[in-house]
Amino acid sequence: MIDKINQLKAEVESLTAATHEKAEELRIKYLSKKGEITSLFNAFREVPNDQKRQVGQLLNELKEAATAKINELKESLENSASAGSETDLTRSADPILLGTRHPLSIVKNEIVDIFARIGFTIAEGPEVEDDWHVFGALNFPPEHPARDMQDTFFIEKDPDVLLRTHTSSVQSRVMLNQQPPIRVICPGRVYRNEAISYRAHCFFHQVEGLYIDKNVSFADLKQALLYFAKEMFGEDTKIRLRPSYFPFTEPSAEMDISCNLCHGEGCPFCKYTGWVEILGCGMVDPNVLEACGIDSKVYSGYAFGMGIERITNLKYQVKDLRMFSENDVRFLRQFESAN
């Protein structure tokens, strides 16, 4: 037994390993449950009593030596791999900076999260659409100016294929393929043929909402929008609804919130009115329900839509819409803490 221990000890001291796999093989060979050192421990019970103390001490020293040697081999291999990676001359000399989500994505996710708390799910649709889903199903008459090439990017004419001008096209798709109750929110990018300036762009982002069920009223719409305004802009936020017109809702309204800079007192941002417009809304026109195969005598609903850029401007006071799409990292880095 003592000769075998001394022999293994000599082997252990001379061990080498070129790879992690080889080092693991050595550990299994000597220290696993069926390893050579473990076998010696199993045979220890057969050692005469007068030799047990000496043999036991030698066995423990052998096990400690083997464990230390194999750990040393593994550590050496890890250090070699680390040293090799540090000498990679193809890496950039500039530090790699952490990125951040885009401010529009931050605000969109916040809007979606707020409406998710009151039961709205996300619905999405294609950005390249047809006339029926963008205009026809939503009660736009054939002569409506939104159908003119001066306002809309048409890809083909007859049949009409275009870039959607609003995410209301997603609402029409949902209504055509799903029976009430419907409670969806539709975020996405839209396109309009407008001159690019600090106030407008040829593409921007919207979030629209649709709720259809039995006995839905304008009071339900107002309550949902009041909840949204308070969650997004603060508990002290007030709203007001002004009569307006949209082809797909009747009655329709524009919604203002109390200015979150002056708290309704009046300032240059709100043009000294104390109010800032943020979205349009209304009760879904019965013609829209019927066009999408929903019985308007049984069901009613409301819809609303807002520009994400508009809400982002209100939250972060970004005065030029073009900054959202210029990809200037000096601008984007300001939102690192908003993640």
What secondary-structure arrangement, pairings included, does this model have?
Layout (H helix, E strand, L loop, with lengths): L1 H12 L6 H12 L4 H8 L8 H35 L16 H14 L4 E2 L5 E3 H4 L19 E3 L4 E3 L4 H10 L4 E10 L11 E11 L4 H16 L5 E8 L2 E10 L16 E10 L1 H6 L8 E8 H9 L12 H4 L7
Parallel strand pairs: 1-5
Antiparallel strand pairs: 2-4, 3-4, 5-6, 6-10, 7-8, 8-9, 9-10
CATH class category of the largest domain = Alpha Beta
Under CATH, the homologous superfamily of the largest domain reads Bira Bifunctional Protein, Domain 2
Calculate the terminal CA-CA distance, rounded to whole Å: 66 Å
Tell me the number of helical segments per DSSP (H or I, 4 or more residues long).
11
Secondary structure category = alpha+beta
Percent of residues in helical segments?
A: 25-40%
So what's the overall shape? elongated
Poorly predicted regions are: none
Strand content: 15-25%
Rounded radius of gyration (Å): 35 Å
The number of distinct β-strands equals 10
Series of secondary-structure elements, N-terminal to C-terminal: HHHHHEEHEEHEEHEEEHEHH
- In the residues, how many domains can be counted? 2
CATH topology of the largest domain: BirA Bifunctional Protein, domain 2
Major β-sheet profile: 7 strands, mixed
Strand order of the largest sheet: 1-5-6-10-9-8-7
CATH architecture title of the largest domain:
2-Layer Sandwich
